[in-house]
UniProtKB/TrEMBL annotation:
<feature type="transmembrane region" description="Helical">
    <location>
        <begin position="20"/>
        <end position="45"/>
    </location>
</feature>
<keyword id="KW-0812">Transmembrane</keyword>
<dbReference type="GO" id="GO:0005886">
    <property type="term" value="C:plasma membrane"/>
</dbReference>
<keyword id="KW-0472">Membrane</keyword>
<feature type="transmembrane region" description="Helical">
    <location>
        <begin position="65"/>
        <end position="85"/>
    </location>
</feature>
<keyword id="KW-1133">Transmembrane helix</keyword>
<protein>
    <submittedName>
        <fullName>CD63 antigen (Trinotate prediction)</fullName>
    </submittedName>
</protein>
<feature type="transmembrane region" description="Helical">
    <location>
        <begin position="219"/>
        <end position="242"/>
    </location>
</feature>
<dbReference type="InterPro" id="IPR008952">
    <property type="entry name" value="Tetraspanin_EC2_sf"/>
</dbReference>
<dbReference type="InterPro" id="IPR018499">
    <property type="entry name" value="Tetraspanin/Peripherin"/>
</dbReference>
<feature type="transmembrane region" description="Helical">
    <location>
        <begin position="92"/>
        <end position="118"/>
    </location>
</feature>
<dbReference type="Pfam" id="PF00335">
    <property type="entry name" value="Tetraspanin"/>
</dbReference>
Amino acid sequence: MIRVEKEPGIYVEQKKSKIISVLFSYILLLGLLSFIIFGVSLTIICEKHYLHGLFQFTDPWDIAWILFCAGVVCLTGFIIGVLFYNSSNPIYLIVYCVCLVLAMVLLIATLWTSAVFYQKFPSRLHDDFLRVIHTYRVPRFGSSRRVVDDIQTSLQCCGLNNHTDWLSTAFYLTINQWPDSCCLFRFKQVYCGDVFSLIYQYKGCSEELYNDVKTVTRALIGTSAAGAIIVLLGWFLLIALFNKSKKKIF
């Protein structure tokens, strides 16, 4: 029997084709990752908007925008990757590599800032929340009213520990009542104590707000960490593709 050896060039092309097929599967995974990132980031941006402005340092709402940008880059990489697979144009491969670099930078930035925030926020939540209620409707602190009303309306609470936190604030001492966001609303009325006997909300915001911030921050950390691992996997596939090509790839 005569053994026929495969030509080295044919062998290289077969190995290269397998890697490109695996690379296409990864490109689909990158597209899925972009939609997961969009889901997490947009949920935080739209539904947890009341967290924005509470803390004096970067908050989850700000970090979610970084993650959203990473999702945009991943989606762009997915589109460019599909174009590269269909045309084998090396220009698309270069742009695809740039997208992976940008995605990695944004995901690492999200992971780092989220981890730093996660370490800081338990000790700052108490002080920062009391700061915003004590500057409620103070002209120099225009954002305090929005922050407080958003939190108390969204979480249906009043004050940090309970409604008595307001008793020493300039707002309460001036008009001798709690803000409207402390009301337990009925019949879609606006003011506390009207003819419909609306009552004040006595529950504090502390526990629910803490759990909300912790959950959101963990989601940012988990999503960015998983995304960074997936992007790193893409780099390994690209390196394997180049290593298996001893001559001109395309």
